[in-house]
Design a protein that fits this description.
2 copies of one chain form a homodimer. With 322 residues, chain A is α/β, with parallel strands linked by helices. Chain A is built from 11 helices and 15 strands. The first copy, chain A, folds into 3 domains: 5-101, 3-Layer(aba) Sandwich (Rossmann fold); 130-187, Dna Ligase, domain 1, CATH 3.30.1490.20; 190-311, ATP-grasp fold, B domain (D-amino Acid Aminotransferase, Chain A, domain 1). A 6-stranded antiparallel beta sheet of chain A has the order 14-13-10-11-12-15. In chain A, strands 3-2-1-4-5 form a 5-stranded parallel beta sheet. In chain A, helix 3 runs antiparallel to helix 5. Chain A is globular, with a radius of gyration of 20 Å. Chain A binds chain B through residues 11-15, 38-41, 216, 218, 223-225, 273, 276-277, 280-281, 305, 307-321, and chain B through 11-15, 38-41, 216, 218, 223-225, 273, 276-277, 280-281, 305, 307-321. Strand 15 (308-320) of chain A pairs antiparallel with strand 15 (308-320) of chain B, so a sheet runs across the interface.
Amino acid sequence: MTTNILILSVGTRNKIIQYFKHELKGKGKIIVTDSSELAPALYEADKHYIVPRITEPGYIETILEICTKEKITGILSLIDPELTLLAENYSKFTEIGVTPIISRADLVTMSFNKFEFNKFVQRLGFNSIKSYKELSKFYEDLDNNKISFPVFVKPITGSASINISKVKTKEQLEEMFERFDDLLIQELMDEKEYGVDVYIDLLSSEPVSLFIKEKLNMRAGETDKSISVRNEKLFNLVYDFVTKAGYRGIIDIDIFEKQGEFYISEVNPRFGGGYPHAFESGINVPLQIINNLQNHTNTPNLDYAPGIYMMKFNEVTIKRID
Amino acid sequence: MTTNILILSVGTRNKIIQYFKHELKGKGKIIVTDSSELAPALYEADKHYIVPRITEPGYIETILEICTKEKITGILSLIDPELTLLAENYSKFTEIGVTPIISRADLVTMSFNKFEFNKFVQRLGFNSIKSYKELSKFYEDLDNNKISFPVFVKPITGSASINISKVKTKEQLEEMFERFDDLLIQELMDEKEYGVDVYIDLLSSEPVSLFIKEKLNMRAGETDKSISVRNEKLFNLVYDFVTKAGYRGIIDIDIFEKQGEFYISEVNPRFGGGYPHAFESGINVPLQIINNLQNHTNTPNLDYAPGIYMMKFNEVTIKRID
């Protein structure tokens, strides 16, 4: 059986496409899309399509047509705004024999709302980061010494690091609340930060890949570096969380460590930007996805070496576009 | 004769090291340094050294020792703060048989002072961007309609895009001048921007590589993309400027276009961040450097195809560091 995979909105995620192409050799094709012909990852695939922006009417129909034409077996997206779309249209894909690699729509939507996600983490019985939507509740805890300045202020929804501010005074805080709606006040977490890549088998619903890396903060923050970590307490916590939460497919979890305790900060229900570190360490999620699409349950692949560094640098795609 | 090249402060410039390694095959070795073992480009070279930061006492002596030990023929640096150091210590290197690929110290220093550089461009008879160090002179031209808001305000010295602000009112401008010293007010240039890579032969003093690319501004500005350009007027202007200015070795020139006229904005007397576009288009500066170090004058290599796009993406280096 041929396994053809369609990856949407590939942008600059060349490595992900390279990995899939390598794993699909002899098994099927990797087809990709983007709205811009200047997305370099387009040119890594067996075939690519330039498609409308995801906000355009008829977008999902265009994707469904590509699925039919290219005999697609599985589909996934690499950008946040498209994950909800994919999850909400799940049955439109399964009806034509295509499996979306995505969690349930309600879980995806909740994952993009930092306040709701935080409550969810608490309900499941895990440490969560102290979070406030209302100034009054924050001031109450401030008076009772349950929290102190500085704090982080960020939009409740929206992508990770846009408009995140470290706020030091009531004046600054009130000024921000006057200017913007839907802000979240969060306890400052500035010790250690981990990124965890997890693949939850589509058939067995068990985590069959789990790779922990500590993010290393660099000057100017422009160069991404990380180190692979083996930590039994953190491993068990993530395994437990993922099993209880009900995600499926590939997810990327951000976790903070403060005074020896771990705090689950957010889940991106897609391949994280740091996934190449996991793949290069032997955690082969593309292969696990292909196995699932071929109706095979994966045996867990949870072994990797600690102390391995990943350092990003710029590679280039050179292309004449006619 | 063996040609061994030492490249300093390589950071994440893996591509540059790869190109040199490829061109040196059978001819000599590429040795590199950085102050951090998490600089991925270290691991592309034949050999690497972790060295003190360039501001540490004895730094230049450390580099000279490496030159002697490794029988280095030529040396260059990839970061701005080190260029002046290399230029000022030029004779210390030539005395031990090492050729620094760098322009004269006075030219290097001047290139990092945006006001002085601007006057230099004018003196040589080229269009320059209207620039003011003093509020009074700016206001004079503002009153005479020679310039209008918005303007760019940036530090006179210092790296390209740190703290550059678009300023729209007198109030904003005066607030900035109160808070910071050594600011420069410049006419807003927001039409087209070009990056030009030029290699000026160390023996003939002629430009023997000249590659023009238009920088393409992308959303969020985080992904670098450019397109190769052939434009006779711009080519002749750059050729003329470089010949008159007296730079040597590899330089990167930023040029703006406004209403059909070109304005030379700055020169970085080192490999620019976009050089891979030139190399991948056949403009082989590492080979020209090797030729020069072997005492051969280069024949000009000024031919390349226009309309070729470069798109950057993240590659990763994986490394156990003991």
